[in-house]
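Because discrete structure vocabularies remain unfamiliar, it helps to consider an illustrative case, giving the amino acid sequence and backbone structure tokens:
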Amino acid sequence: MRLIKENDLFELRVLSLVSSEDLRVLHILYQPFLGNLAVSIYQTLIYTQSLYEEGPSSHDFLFKQLGATSLEFANAIAKLEACELVRTFVEKTDEFTMYFYEIFAPKLAKDFFKDPIFSGLLNSYIGERRVQQISELFSSAKPYNLKDKEVTMSFGEVYNPDLNADAFNKFINSDHLGRNEVKRKAPFNLALFKDFLRKNYQIIADKALVNDDYKRIVSLTMVYSFNEETMAKQIAEGYSADLPLGQRINYDYVTRNLKEIARYKHIAKPKKLLPLNMLSNDSEKARLINRMEVEASLDFLASFNKEAVVPDSEISLLLRLSSDHNLRNGVINALVYYVLNTKDMQLPTAYVEKIAATLSRSKIEYAVDAINYLEAPKDARKPTAKTKVTPTKTVAANDQASEELDDDEYKKLLKELSNVQG
């Protein structure tokens, strides 16, 4: 244990926004295993941080304020460090010792109870029955069961933002935006996903999940396109270790969460793209194919919907196309594109799944092959040569004028798509 003397100096930085709810979590959930002194140190540092803004202070003030000895203070700080509430750095010279303290907010209550380490530690200190009692202090009321009577206004209806404006093309990058969710920009990395589950949530995927779980998780990423870290977090929230293997993930809960995270992207007005059935040159052909290959199927479908939300029935359909029919993302987007343009912008479920089964049996893997197959005369349809399309940087397609093609020209262009390499 380090020895902290009264005349040792310290500086302080609070790196999280600490709310009254965070302090309530600290007192009720953390205090049993942190102890009163550690909680008092944390709270005192939060409330007195403005006193240390002009320069270093000595620990003498804290020891007197807290009525604690040097050893008691050092033991309590170690507990705060162990629970990821404080990070400590030290710089020693011949003349003085300087400590640097960084303070972070505690876990949200729902994350605390889902964390096997913290919830298990609390259980070992106060008992399972008491944990159940205090968990009710943080439970929310049940929602009304009045779905058909809802009149809530959507974000798009109220604000109607123009997402082409410069304000929506600038993003803030911060190390401390810990509660935001990030879209992935590369194929889903299952090994990285497993690593996040192990490191962040102590879930060993190969022992906790089965092949059907991996299949469903990959299907969810194809539709919603969130990165490995976000997917690991959502799966961990829906995971119950006490259930039989193969039944441990509540996919209804996970899907609701993903939909909630993604909904603001799709209720607002989408960027203006060329109508997808109007191609005028090789660049636009490549752009369309690359969009199909790299864009999440929910995003691709949402681009047809203008300001309307993609309904749950169509989201479920996209998930089935991936999980039940084993179609890749580019093929799903090509199928959506084809059906919408041949069925007056509708997606009849039975019709879509019938075509999906045919594409799956034909082992079609790329958007180019799917489009060529679907546009070919029925008596001439056969599996096409597999054509790998190299994604290129997505370019907003409102920078070139488009012109409508007649049927012969359009079919000719579609036939040429098999040679498109990006």
User: Anything to note?
Assistant: The first strand starts at residue 9 and ends at 14.
